[in-house]
Structure formats: C-alpha cells, structure tokens
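Help! Submission page says 'invalid entity' but I think these are all valid:
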Amino acid sequence: MPRTLTHLADGRELIYFDTALTQRRPEGDSRRIAPRSDVPQLRHDPLADEWVVIAGHRMDRTFLPAADDCPLCPSREGHLTEIPCPDYEVVVFENRFPSFTGSGDSLIYGGEGLFETRPAAGRCEVVCFTSDHDGSFARLDAARARLVIEAWADRTAELSALPGIAQVFVFENRGEAIGVTMRHPHGQIYAYPFVTPTTRAHLTSVRRYREETGRNLYDDLVRAELDDGRRVVLESQHWVAFVPFAARWPVEVHLYPRRRVPDLAALSPEVRDDLAEAYLDLLRRGDAFFGIPLPYIAAWHQAPVREQRDDAALHLELFSVQRAVDKLKYLAGSESAMGAFVNDREPESIAQRLREGGGA
Amino acid sequence: MPRTLTHLADGRELIYFDTALTQRRPEGDSRRIAPRSDVPQLRHDPLADEWVVIAGHRMDRTFLPAADDCPLCPSREGHLTEIPCPDYEVVVFENRFPSFTGSGDSLIYGGEGLFETRPAAGRCEVVCFTSDHDGSFARLDAARARLVIEAWADRTAELSALPGIAQVFVFENRGEAIGVTMRHPHGQIYAYPFVTPTTRAHLTSVRRYREETGRNLYDDLVRAELDDGRRVVLESQHWVAFVPFAARWPVEVHLYPRRRVPDLAALSPEVRDDLAEAYLDLLRRGDAFFGIPLPYIAAWHQAPVREQRDDAALHLELFSVQRAVDKLKYLAGSESAMGAFVNDREPESIAQRLREGGGA
C-alpha cells in the first residue's frame, strides 16, 4: 500500500497511507506555525522506581475545539488544519504537543540520585483514520481498518529503529469520559525511551514463569482461557478475544493472535487481514454493550524494542470506564493511590454480554 | 477521648468518637435491614502479579442520593440513616457495600495456578467526620480534625490486630470528579488482606536502597526536599509537606512527620495535635489552588502490618485530577494501560502556588 512522507510547516513529519496511489498527495502545509522549542522532561520517582514525564507546554494543548475548527479534519479553503489535503484515508503525523520528543538514550531503572532528570526523548504521533469528524473506528469498513493496521505496523517498525526508543505503544482513547481533548476520532502512538511500568511488571512475571515451568505465560494463559471458555468473546482463524480472569474494568477484553509474535510489525499479511475483521467485530460489541458509543482505551501491548522480545506477546487490551449506561467507574483511592483494583462486574458476565452483542 | 461501640440492625459495627462523654449514645438502629450475604472475591492477575477484587454487589450501591435521603446524615424522625443518632462528632462504621469483608488469611504474591481465587477477606469502614451534609474536612475546626486523627489511629491499631489483615489504608475521596457516590463528606478505611501494589513497589525500592547505602530512602527523600526547598509547601514543628520531585498529578503534595513512624497509631499525642493543624492548613491550600472546592484523594500510606515495619514511613499523599479550573486530568492510554504518567504541571510551580495559597 502506498505511503507518502511529507512535512508540516513547523518541520514535523506527516505520512499518508493509501489503499491505492493517488495523484493528490503530498500538498504543502501553507500555515505559518513555528517549531516548538519546549522539551518535556523525565523525572525519576525513586519510590516507585518509575519515570514521570513533566510536560508543562501540554497545558496549552488544543481542548475540545468546535467542529468547524477541528485540526484533524482535512484542510479546506479558509480552514487549514494539521492535514494539508482536501481528503485522506489514513494519515499519521507527529503530535504538536508531544509528551516525548527528540533523540536520546533509552533508560534503565534503578537510578542513582534522588533527583534524577533526563530529556523526555522519544516521539508521539497522531493517527487519523477517517476524515469524517463524527465517525468512529467501529464504523470503518474492513478495507480501511486493514489500512490502519498497515500504518500501525509501519510506525512500529520505523519508531523501533530510532535510537533510544525502548517501547512503541499504539493506542486509541475514545470518548470524553476517557479525557479525549479532540472529538475527531483518532489514535495515537507513543515511542517511549523506557519500558513502561506495566510491560515491565508483565515481563517480570513472564520471566519468573519461564524459570519455574519452562513455558511461556502468555501462551499458557490464552490456552487456559480457550479451555475454560466462559470468558471467551470471539474466535477467528488467527485471533482469540477473552475477558481476562481478573478483569479490572467493568468492560474489558483482550485480543491475542493464536500464534505469539512480539509486535504488530511481525504479523503476516494474512493475520493482518483477519485482524481487521476481528478488531471491528470487537469494537462493535463494545458499542452494543450499553447501546451507547462506548468510551474506551484500546491499548496494544508490544514487546520492548531491545529486550525480552522472545518472551513478550503482542496483544490488545480494550477496556472502558463505563460501568452502567449512566455511570462511570473512577479510579479513586484504592486504585489511584494503592494500585488495588475493585471491579463491580464479574468477568464471566462481561464476556456473556459481549458475546451476545455480536453482529450489532 | 470517649469511644462508644454499638451495632447496626444488620450486625455491622459502628463506633462513636467524641471529644467528651455524652449521655446520648448509643441508640439502637431501628431499621429493618438484613445482613448482606454476598462475599466479594479476589482473583489473581498472573501477568501483573496482583490481586483484583470482583465485587458484583457493589453495582447496587447507593449512588448520589438526594440531600434529604442521605444515609450519612444523622437520623431524624421519618428518616433513619446509617447513623442512629440525632447528631454526631466522628463516627466510624462498616461499609454496607464492602470491597473486603470477613476473615481469612493474608495473601502473598506469586500464585501458583493461572486462575487463583480467594475470598476477599478484610474490612471496609466509612468515617463520617461532620453531620453537616454540605461541610468539608477543610472546614472542620482543629479540635474536630484532632478527633478524626484519634479515630484513624484507633482504627489502624484495631484493624491491624485482626487476623489476615496485611495493610490498613485510611483515605478520603472528595468530589464527584473523583467518583464519589455520596456527597456527604466522609472518609474511608480499607483493611486489605494483601500488601497493595503501590506499597509493595515502594518498599522494594526502600529495601534496595538500604542494601546499597545502609540508609532509609524515605528519610533521605524528606531531607533532600528540605535541603532543596523549591518544592516545600509547609513546615510545622513535627510535619513537613512538599510536592514530590516527580509529581504525577496536576496538584499533588506529600506530608511526612519529621520523625519516621510506621503508622498513624504510632504517632504521639503531641504529633497528632500538630497534624490536625498541618492537615487543615494543607487542605485549605488545596481549595485555594483553583478557588474551587478541590476534588482530591487523600491517601495515608502506612507500613504493612506484618512486614518491613522498620523500613516503612507513614505519610500522606494528597493529589487531585483538577488540572485547570475547568479541566480535569484523565488517566488515559499512557497512564491506565502502561502505567506511564505525564504531568502537565511542573512540580516547582505546583509548590509555589500551594505556598501562596496559605492562610486561605
């Protein structure tokens, strides 16, 4: 599928992904916007042994702009946007208000001083997958979803090759209940200079499990869920989705390829084809869950770029804060302060409802 | 200070804490409510190596009742509440919709099977500190705040002595933006059957730091913040508050006693007296931050009941999701899925604003 690289007026990269080569790209960005010079900072929390990004400039980021002022719509006469083109299929560009930017070294944990800082090196990208301001991923057709997957895989490979990148995270925040600041549907990609705390914790368990059993924990988990069956939501030729046994969220489902791979770039074309269908199916079951557009976080867990690639398992974790049609789950004291989750829904009943929502 | 134990109609314990002995307690609870038989379950997440509570009955819990139907107001003719008394100072009772209940063994990590469950043994309590439905902790007087501290210490000691309890967590969720389901101001106490993930992570760092340096990480952190000074918010005779160097939240401040103790029960009367003033001062600075009642989580980190008590440090972490007067910070993809926090505010500027809000 054709891929066209261009640059925005302030020097940021923008890439069009198309199902067929067209004559209309690239067009130049004729806006007058200056490169941003503010660099976010990483600070090490010595108690949690985690890096925190301090990004003061993001306070000024675009916040719920009106539809006719949307920076993710195609450009038109009198309204120049981030996408200098009258239409697009899939387009990826560097975030104007990044949490990570520039190059640096990848970071390890266990810092030395109590007040350690680093530049927040890395990269943040925005993934626009429809020019329809009121659209959603779930309403894409399979061909478009397939093109998005191609873009995800492309970006994963390219960002992984940048110096200092430790993990590439492809995700979508959907809905204002999740904190989305722009209503136009879009995904994001964060290329981190460290392995994220969640991935680090998972891979610690995976390593211990391998030492104890000689087997891979992800493989055994997927097998055990299929054998048990009560939490399985869908199975396709190459993909399996289930509500995890210890689900944290009132709606939560994980999607794994049947054959373990480290990241999206490692998926074969055939498995990508099947993913387009399976992912759309899952998102539509999500919207059917309460009969409203489900606010969700769709998070692709990928192997770190430089370690434990043989152990890790690409998978999607899709979850929502919606706990009833008119109620949200909040991360309050137990979750936010102590990391101890309380889920008001039984995983088996979440799975049943997601299974029944099929085809909606 | 007098402490009066009684029981609610369904058998739950309720304890009045008073500044002076009164004749009016206890009165019987004349409601007809049956004991709840639903027991929440713990499930082990083998990837994160964490216990998750599955508590389906909590879906039915009281949700933002109208003021004249508030279960935390004192009882009056025709409106019997959780507190069978026409007025109260501080009262603590078992939560009717607990995340943890009943007795069991305390749990360790590194479970064996992939689908491990346990009863969610433990205890959840509600702490009412004012009969004023529209009040707030920040508007208590120092004598009342001092009485609350007495109740916290009492509960910490008593719950720690129960079999199977691994950690006692005293906290307050304030504001609907935090997910509070009852507007009447109140705090909570969770007695967990496991050491929470956050505490476990902190104490892992503390243990490693001791092995490497022979010193205590908390002691060195407090000393370093005082020496640096830029993030210090207030100092009293026995307490020190500062914005942590790697703050995760747009408003965040930590409060430590100058002399390290494991938990609230270990504080001397004199240090408790001083805490009443310091804590009220801090909360009032919080409300002055944006000039609105600040939604916050106030979380007391205490030593585990049965391990590492010599290493741990009682301290309060007070933080808010409010990132501007009209904007909230949400835990979206990077935070909720990957555990990687991005803060839009610089810790030094948070501290400066909290310092300037003094006396408000």
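Support: the input was valid. A stray whitespace character was the problem, and the output above is from the cleaned input. The first helix of chain B runs from residue 142 to 160.
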